[in-house]
Amino acid sequence: VSAEDEAPAADKVVDGFSEKDREKMAEGTEKHEFQAEVSRLMDIIINSLYTDKQVFLRELVSNAADALEKARFHSVQDETFLGDAKDLEIKIEHDPDAKTISLTDTGVGMSKADLINNLGTVAKSGTTNFLEAMAEGADTNLIGQFGVGFYSAFLVADKVTVTSKCNEDPVQHVWESTADASFTVVPDPRGNTLGRGSRVTLHLKEDAHDYLSEDKLKEASKKYSQFIQFPIYVKVKKEVDVEAEEDDDDDDKEDEEEKDDVETKDDEEKDDKVEKKKATKKTVFEWEQVNTQKAIWLRAKEDVTEEEYTEFYKSISKDYLDPLAYTHFNAEGEIEFKSILYLPKKAPFDMMDNYHSKKSEVKLFVRRVLVAEKFDDLLPRYMNFVRGVVDSDDLPLNVSREQLQQNKIMKVISKKLVRKVLELMKKLAKEEESGGDDDEEKDEDEEKSDKAEKKEEKKHKSGEEATWTKFWKEFNTNLKMGCYEDDSNRSKLSKLLRYLTTKSEGKEISLDKYLDRMQESQESIYYMSGDSIHVMLKAPALQIFKKKD
């Protein structure tokens, strides 16, 4: 019994490395010191009490996606670049026994020099800025805001192993560190197991063992990577009928036996298999794709159906209702970004309760990687009901929120988003007043950009109430707050406001419409505010004006 127990222990394999492999690696290992900034950074990460640790997955998936994009770019220039590993993909798996998470990509991979330079020094400004902020006494929770790249792996791991193989280097190398100011690099004793690409394995800390749950790993992977263009798979455990599974195994065995020309054994084994089929269930592991949701904002408006716009809205907003209207546009010029913005049908019941602390619900993506679910300065406070996404290639992924808020690019994006929301509202209001015909002249480009929006708006117009009336009932308080808070857009917002008048027969109209209907002899406009329309209609002052009319 003791011999049997010892055998598996001797052959214990962790992350594909046996004990013998580990011994060979120990013999030929090269030790390197981290750059001073990296050591400081890792000290902060290891000793931090940072709560949202799952940003490590965002950073590692983003790095893998960049490596895949580079491989795709090289393959366009050189058809032979991909070789046998033609599938550009990311695979994430966990090993509950070894307490590890591994992320493998088929990207460009890294040579020995790349491993030393890329993982041993700070090349990105985000990390340096983070260290400066920490020196000034900033909160450790800033880690997630600065996006410290690869080193965020040490939020959850006490040891990280990176195995990598690139086309330029015939040897596959293994980089490893326990976050102790040094790292090792050694040729992989197993030879070339990856073909091309990198495998990052995190040996998890005790407080991060919840990531060994299949559901937790899938949820975190989906959150940050659901719109990445390359497929991302998570290894999942499933139960299948053993009969079908064994048939596959049998076919493999039969093929091998045919090669050996031993037909008699085939027949004997087939008899045995019939008996085995009595068992019903068997546990197998499969790769399940987590990023099936497509980034529809990257497609041309003409190629996206109404159903896709609606489904996309529901997936990002978690709203059970269809959107009231939307605008889908590409901003070009000094800054380029793509965006879809939605106006909901219903206002959240607590919208005005936390008005001053509530953040914008527009999600910010950089190259399809989620950077912020809620962001302070993307839209002004009075527009915090707007839902949607903004995706820019011009923003750095590893930038702090403090930098973003002062970033010129962000100010340009914010200004364009506000303008687009106001244009959408203006269009809805005009359609109601003119019965769907827009009297204002438009140039060709604007008409093209509005085509998809009009489809959605007109679809909703056919209901009992006009789209703008529905919107005004739900969000009129926000527009009034906008007039008070937004100096630069006050004149545009004021034209969207609606009022009851003594001659509007219970219908709310705009100030412009009121001016059009004014009599030539009328020199002044009088207004009244009150608790309710019923109270104001009975006011003595109003009765005097009615008599004069």
Main sheet characteristics: 9 strands, mixed
Helix content: 40-55%
Distance between the termini: 107 Å
Instruction: Determine Rg (CA atoms, Å).
Output: 31 Å
Structural class: alpha+beta
General form: elongated
| Strand adjacency order, main sheet | 1-6-5-4-7-3-2-8-9
Strand content: 15-25%
What low-confidence regions span 5 or more consecutive residues with pLDDT below 50? 1-10, 139-147, 436-449, 451-463
Mean pLDDT: 76
Number of helices: 19
Number of strands: 14
Assembly level:
single chain
Account of the protein in words:
The chain has a nine-stranded mixed beta sheet. The chain has a five-stranded mixed beta sheet with strand order 10-11-14-12-13, sandwiched between helices. The protein has helices at about 1-10, 20-25, 35-45, 55-75, 110-120, 125-135, 145, 215-225, 240-260, 265-275, 305-315, 400-405, 410-435, 445-460, 465-485, 490-495, 510-515, 535, 540-549, and strands at about 30-35, 90-95, 100-105, 155-165, 175, 180-185, 195-205, 230-240, 280-290, 325-330, 335-345, 360-365, 370, 385-390. Helix 4 crosses helix 8 (about 215-225) and helix 9 (about 240-260) packs antiparallel against helix 10. A hairpin with a 4-residue loop joins strand 2 (about 90-95) and strand 3 (about 100-105). By secondary structure, the protein is α+β, with helices and mostly antiparallel strands. About 30% of the residues are buried.
